[in-house]
Amino acid sequence: MNDITVSAPSKFVILGEHAVVYGKPAIALAIDRRxxxxxxxxxxxxxxxxxxxxxxxxxxxxxxxxxxxIPVSVNLDSKVPAGxxxxxxxxxxxxxxAALRALNGFRLNPESIAKEAYEAEYxxxxxxxxxxxxxxxxxxxxxxxxxxxxxxxxxxISKNDKTWDISKIEVPKMTFVIGYTGIRAPTGPLVExxxxxxxxxxxxxxxxxxxxxxxxxxxxxxxxxxxxxxxxIMTYDHKLLSILGVSCNELNKLVDASLPYSYGxxxxxxxxxxxxxxxxxxxxxxxxxxxSRGGIPYIVSTGVDGVKIEYN
Length: 312
Prior knowledge:
The chain is α+β, with helices and mostly antiparallel strands. It is built from nine helices and 13 strands. Strands 1, 2, 3, 4, 5, 6, 7, 8 and 13 form a nine-stranded mixed sheet that branches.
């Protein structure tokens, strides 16, 4: 083949933020904003038709190194806002890993792609869980740290002294509105903030346990397509995360504005900025109120496929 085009979905964490650090369950859903990568063989490394230094693209540099590739020309088309917590770098890593495999004539193996993309993320960022790359690879929805039946198990991913069990969730088509605050808040300090609070306060430890419990309840609501029940759990989860101190005025403002027109709303990701998400059947109204409060709205749908070759 002369060139290969592959796309992978972005995602958001619907339940389980911060508690997942302590072995509690977490759920991430793939959404219909995709990162598309087109690759072809070249005599030099190029990005979007411009000669580039591979060292400035650590995710792609790692993956190219795993395949002993000659230089390639890469065209990138992202519908995912960078730095928003929606998994743009994971979607890039997944799509690029799959594209190189297809370019070399290999069949797409989801487990291998998810693991290689995770290693690329770790190489580029020095931390992280395989949640983002797993949901971007598989699509639909995935859960971490959830006891699962054999047919729901996808793969295990290990790094250093940690092992994550990844299982799949069938996700119906639901409509969400994501509201981006425009604030880029590093994950590390927020995780450390929760750790310190939890270590010195049993109440905070109980909150973490409760987040784990309601995440399992939420998974059942997703499977049953119970949007009312899921929305209530989302709103409750936001209150718990706020008690842990990881929300902020900007997120609370967007959540509060969305709730009258939504089944539920909450921050998504590590907090401190980034995005919130509302489950709604009135996406236009929710988008408008988010914009009126200074947020950037994105209407998204779930129940989408994972990484796939795009045939023109």
